[in-house]
Amino acid sequence: MTEHPSSSTPAANTASTTVEWQRESDQIAYREALAAMDTRNAAIQAGTAHELIWLLEHPPVYTAGTSAAGEELLDPRFEVVEAGRGGRYTYHGPGQRIGYAMLDLTKRGKDVRRFVHALEDWVIATLGDFGVESWSVPDRVGIWTRDIDGREAKIGAIGVRVRRWVTMHGFSVNLAPDLAHFSGIVPCGIDEFGVTSLERLGQNVSNAQWDDALIANADEFFANLAKTS
């Protein structure tokens, strides 16, 4: 997908489909990632490429979802890119691990809501492996935890797009980003709660450690996708 250093391995067959994993060691520009996702999405639709879970990190960027409101862009100190995913404004940057899931829902139940819930549960389970309790909230987008001041704060974001039943985008988790960079936006349109990270909560987790834990929880993620309502 890119010419950056990465590791790419096919996983064992899951739900009758071989899923490829790609783990990037270099930062990938957001616009470059969008183009790569678009190309892979079309190839999966055409049956010429495997499904893909892509783990990476971006240089600092603000991204606008389809529901982004202009007044929520407070200080555009970084490039602002229209993402095409659902949701509002979010920040991506160093110290934040991204997981993009390009999966064919025609083979996984054609249930977008179940896909989103499965992503949330996957992130929550992986955070739990590092001793961080987290949860989703029905009327608030993202993954939430208890910050060092005892208040709820956001530690992960969810944003997806589905085109002809093939998914794009996915989730981001704050390992150790510069949290001040979130002040340039109202993250996901929610201004009454703060943003936190594993580092702020006392957990020093590398990209490799996070990826390994996420992959260890992947079977449960795919099992949740396969469940019937």
What does this protein look like?
It is a single chain. The chain is an alpha+beta fold and 229 residues long. It has a single domain (8-226), classed as BirA Bifunctional Protein, domain 2 (2-Layer Sandwich), CATH 3.30.930.10. Helices cover 24% and strands 30% of the residues. Strands 1, 2, 3, 7, 8, 9, 10, 11 and 12 form a nine-stranded mixed beta sheet that branches. Helix 2 packs across helix 3. The relative contact order is 0.18. Residues 1-5 and 10-16 have low confidence and may be disordered.
List keywords for this structure.
229 residues, alpha+beta, BirA Bifunctional Protein, domain 2, nine-stranded mixed β-sheet, three-stranded mixed β-sheet, 12 strands, 24% helix, globular
